[in-house]
Amino acid sequence: MPGTPFAVRVDHTDxxxxxxxxxxxxxxxxxxxxxxxxxxxxxxxxxDFSDVDYINSTGIAVIVGVLAKARATGRQVxxxxxxxxxxxxxxxxxxxxxxxxxEDETTAVTAS
Amino acid sequence: xxxxxxDEPRDRNNWAPNIERLRADGGVNVGGRRLxxxxxxxxxxxxxxxxxxxxxxxxxxxISEWKANYGSFWPSHSRFNAPVAGIKPGExxxxxxxxxxxxxxxxxxxxxxxxxxxxxxxHPFAGWITFSSYDDDGTVGQVQLVIRPSDxxxxxxxxFGAAKGEDLMWQHTLRALAAHFGVEAKPETTLVxxxxxxxxxxxxxxxxxxAIGSAxxxxxxxxxxxxxx
Lengths: 112, 229
Fold this sequence. Notes:
The structure holds 2 protein chains of 2 kinds.
Chain A: E1 7-13, E2 16-25, H1 30-38, E3 45-55, H2 57-72, E4 77-80, H3 84-92, E5 100-102, H4 105-110
Parallel strand pairs in A: 2-3, 3-4, 4-5
Antiparallel strand pairs in A: 1-2
Helix pairs in contact in A: 1-2
Chain B: E1 35-36, E2 45-53, H1 59-68, E3 78-81, E4 92-97, E5 101-110, E6 114-120, E7 125-135, E8 139-149, H2 152-180, E9 188-195, H3 210-219, H4 221-228
Antiparallel strand pairs in B: 1-6, 2-8, 2-9, 3-4, 4-5, 5-6, 6-7, 7-8
């Protein structure tokens, strides 16, 4: 099934680092997302899913990889911009237990 | 700016529905149980990845055959009773290990090149298992687990051999998968300890331990037979 290539932009925002993702989050996203995370510096990480339309189960594993790295160094991860569908998927998979999920960037940034 | 997306997700039918508990008739140590991700487990969290090269076979065909013959690739000491409907989202498969311990999995996700399982309470480990096939200078079959031992008893068991047994099981599975396509291959294993901490708040999971539950179920068998007589 052809999809949209994954891309990520690192954006330093108020005291946090936003990883602005776009395209399909699947196995092919692993290297790009890991590199973006490694280059993101310090502070809480905001995963921006606003331009993500598709996440499959190998994509969930990719996200877990980022969460695992963050966990190892005690770094906070917050997510926002998820569609209702993927909010539900994050509940089903219980990935929501690993990070706080917010409606939008403003609430994600101001959360402590 | 966030704009609302209302299109029907293209993977809606690939994912299992959101359920509170597995069906009550799901089997011993499965029926009525909640699903567990790694954060509902107890022991250290591991990411275990097993791969095998299967050159000359399209990833879609690898996954199609894997789903259709899933249990046949397992070692003989464990049995997987596939769901009647097959490996499809939301279906439950039952597992019998060493002829005594009963547990199971729920099919979390499927598509043409991958499928995932999630474990219920009491299973030896809490987490996800993702099976996938992809092209990386030739086709690769992969099993990836993101798991924690479910409770203190399973944690001890994993320290004293169960973790090695888990590795051997998936290596056997991948060898059998490759052999199914006429390929003799040696699987590769990558083990990463993601979180060394134990989640003591989940120590009470031991009350759902599938080995204990199975032993109790076996012990009660004569009583059930007498009641039926």
